[in-house]
């Protein structure tokens, strides 16, 4: 065992009555080998009220019959969260991800099924007024319009130059694509607003808060478990989906159907409502990455080179292509459903 790891964590593990034989660091998780088994010591990125949220959320999930999460161990004096040297830690079982070398696509199918189960088990109906809907829509449109104006000003400034930087050339070539994404996002937001005019309630669920492959493990018995629930909170079910796809689609454009199939798998167990799907497509389509990189460049809030900035912008363009492909599959599926109803 590395001496520094033992010196760093031995006092924490002692509170859980755990005596380590060996330790391995894996990012924010330390694998602890003992005579009684293997444990995971997690450094938790927790702020303020999140300290109480973890235990409350775990209790809520248990009360609602959701078992697909790893339990937390308690110290001898009844604590599950330890504050040591300005960091929070907790201990849970170590699960060797048996599915790591297995078919990746099936891992995602299992993960989306389990997310649907999480949302289904924690669904609440909340009252909502037309005033609340209008206020949210107006707030988002105002924010997006301000960002659109900044993007327009940036492209005008670029086009006035005799010689543009590589970043500026890239952006000018992506400008119309960005505009289309913006207009589609606003259109879907307005459609959501119209759909909600007749609604008196909306759905909320306990979202994972950081839904990703890294936070879903499958053991040797094919049981799936969510980990890292520090950011779990009550929100719309689309929040987990938008978070996941915003990361997953920020990659080289490939015309594959697997990402759509994962959403289909989710909806087999927890179908999105019509208005939720419009809001999902709106948030997903809005060119957040493009806006972020352009504003960083414009304000000179970057430390990377011109090449690195240009590469980021290109990935933002790739994401818009991937989002457009996914949304086209969603819309086609919705169209087929409508045709089936008419027959």
From TrEMBL:
One of its GO terms (cellular component) is endospore-forming forespore. Residues 32-251 form the Aminoglycoside phosphotransferase domain. Coiled coil: none annotated. Keywords: Capsid protein, Virion. The keyword Cell cycle does not apply. It comes from the Bacteria. PANTHER family: COTS-RELATED PROTEIN (PTHR39179:SF3), SPORE COAT PROTEIN I (PTHR39179). This is Spore coat protein.
